[in-house]
Predict the 3D structure of the following.
Amino acid sequence: MTPAQRGGAVDAFARRHRFRALEALPWLLAIAAYFAFPDYLALGAQIVAMVLFGLSADLVLGYAGIVTLGHAAFFGMGAYTAGYLAAHGVGSPLVGLVAASAMGAAIGALSGVIILRTQGLSILMLTLVVCVMLQEAANKMTSITGGADGLQGMQVGSVLGLFSFDIYGHTAYWYCLCVLAAGWLIARALVHAPFGRSLTGIRENVTRMHAIGSPVFLRLLTIYTISAAMAGAAGALIAETTGLVALNVLSVDLSGTILVMIILGGVGRLYGAFIGVPLYMIAQDRFSEIDPVYWYFWIGLLLVLVVVFARGGVLGLAEALIRRSTRRR
């Protein structure tokens, strides 16, 4: 590569990586929500943690094209790791967060070595199997996980020794929001870097990426491990802010639910989780209150409408409307 070409590549990367004013909108809304809905901060903290989980799933699904039904395996193991530490005298939230991320990354790397050597339906089934196996193991290891009763007795300390968790969710909300911001910055840097561009190439045409000498398997394993670490961190947030870890954190249902959330927001758009997760969880809260028995029907109807009329999710629909408005002008 000549110096001119190298300089052009650097300039292109700088343009992609430059922050835009519109990117501040989700964070401004999150800050405004803290003051506008003070009675719902506990729910808000869970939504923020699930946004991080959705962001981690979007990295493998939307950018690398890895279809998975087992992403809850990393989320759940992160939750159990943080919960176990808090129940056995290590109550520092940050220590639990780091340990949960490391556990998620380790499981992601170990399982990815096998799973990512397959393609198509094989990946789908293997990720599902990993999730089911870990859930069953957690159910059997009652002395460690609490089994069906859940992991209890957690004593979570204050953040940095300064900010204690309260029943109103003030500290929990800001704690989750700060961790989400760190995860978002990492994800943004990854997808705008040449590494992220190569993932898009693998998703679109893996044969061509092999032909040009790209280390396909290594890059898939890398993003799978990073995604698993982020999912583990999200699990730790849920465990530390709720004080309870149950078997459902390792359920296949949770893996399917997070996929529904990012589909609603828009897959492979980095900000899809910021829209899909709050939309789903708020709709779930409202529908279950209006119709406690058949609320899942209304969630399904919402998903059908989005898939039929907004193929790229809510963000895809917004982009289409903006393009149409621009053409008319």
In short: The longest helix spans residues 216-242.
